[in-house]
Every structure is written in structure tokens, then in C-alpha cells.
Write a structure and sequence with these properties.
Layout lengths: L3 H16 L4 H8 L8 E3 L2 H4 L5 E6 L2 E7 L6 E5 L7
Antiparallel strand pairs: 1-2, 2-3, 3-4
Length: 86
């Protein structure tokens, strides 16, 4: 096994984090009063269907339904009922 592969993956992950890659957790945090580290993406019907523009997230004991446009330049998260994210 080549030990450089994990190092490359780490470098890419750090570069992504520093450059502001748009993860669902980061987009949720930006749209709510949560910190990225406090956001948990919830397995929902949207994630099971493979959607990257609709997802559910939990933070501070609140459930959010989040929606973005395809290039993730706009995101809106609203508190949601549990049945919307099952």
C-alpha cells in the first residue's frame, strides 16, 4: 500500500475545508444559527433518493429541511416536522 495516498487525501480535505467547499453541513450552518461542527445531516428520503439539493439536518435539537439551487450558491433552511424528513 502506498502511504502517500492517505496523505494526498488529507491534503485535499484540508484544502477543501480552507477554500470553503460547500458541504451540506456548511451550507446548513450558514443558513441557520448553528456551527458547522454542530450540524448532523439526517438520513432522509431525500438522501436515499440521491438528492444533493434537498436534505434534512439536525442542530440544537431542531430539525431543518434545507433546499439549494443546483450550484449551491443559494440555500434556505426552515425548521421542519419529523414527517418531512423520514
Amino acid at each position: 500500500m502506498n502511504p502517500r495516498i492517505p496523505l494526498h487525501a488529507l491534503i485535499i480535505a484540508v484544502a477543501c475545508a480552507l477554500s470553503g467547499c460547500k458541504t451540506q453541513s456548511a451550507m446548513t450552518a450558514k443558513s441557520t444559527d448553528c456551527r458547522t461542527i454542530s450540524v448532523d445531516i439526517v438520513k432522509s428520503r431525500y438522501s436515499r433518493e440521491g438528492s444533493t439539493t434537498v436534505w434534512c439536518a439536525k442542530c440544537k435539537n431542531k430539525l431543518y429541511l434545507c433546499v439549494s439551487n443546483p450550484d449551491h450558491s443559494r440555500v434556505e433552511c426552515k425548521e421542519s416536522a419529523l414527517e418531512m424528513c423520514e
